[in-house]
């Protein structure tokens, strides 16, 4: 993927902090880039229902109602981590 929301190191740490499996991380990363369920399915060579299953499980796990709530949760978790270590991006 050419586009990135977080640096490689930030994303590696965030995936670990959120305890995301490799596939969950791939789905979340594409959600953060604004991809549709069909785009995600095509990128990952899985079916749209499988993408939706991943999303439903992530929504339930993080207690959010939709993909926007999921994005907000990921960004909030990242920001908390930045604040904890004094990162200038958290200001």
Write a structural description.
The protein is mainly α. The chain has a single domain (20-84), classed as Winged helix-like DNA-binding domain superfamily/Winged helix DNA-binding domain (Arc Repressor Mutant, subunit A), CATH 1.10.10.10. Helix content is 69%, strand content 0%. It has helices at 8-17, 22-32, 37-44, 48-62, 67-85. It starts with 7 loop residues before the first helix and ends in a 6-residue tail after the last helix. The model has no long low-confidence stretch (mean pLDDT 90).
**What's the count of strands?**
0
Q: Roughly how many Å is the radius of gyration?
A: 13 Å
What name goes with the CATH superfamily? Winged helix-like DNA-binding domain superfamily/Winged helix DNA-binding domain
Order of secondary-structure elements = HHHHH
- Please, what is the oligomeric state? single chain
What low-confidence regions span 5 or more consecutive residues with pLDDT below 50?
A: none
Helical content (DSSP H or I, runs of 4+): 55-70%
**End-to-end C-alpha gap:** 28 Å
How many separate domains?
Answer: 1
Number of helices: 5
Proportion of β residues? under 5%
SS-derived structural category: mainly alpha
What characterizes the major β-sheet? none
């Amino acid at each position: 993927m050419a586009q990135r929301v977080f640096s490689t190191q930030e994303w590696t740490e965030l995936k670990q902090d959120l305890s995301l499996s490799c596939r969950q991380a791939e789905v979340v990363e594409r959600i953060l880039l604004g991809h549709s369920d069909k785009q995600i399915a095509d990128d990952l060579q899985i079916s749209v229902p499988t993408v939706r299953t991943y999303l439903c499980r992530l929504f339930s796990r993080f207690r959010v109602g939709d993909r926007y709530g999921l994005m907000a949760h990921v960004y909030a978790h990242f920001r908390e981590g930045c604040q904890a270590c004094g990162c200038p991006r958290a200001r």
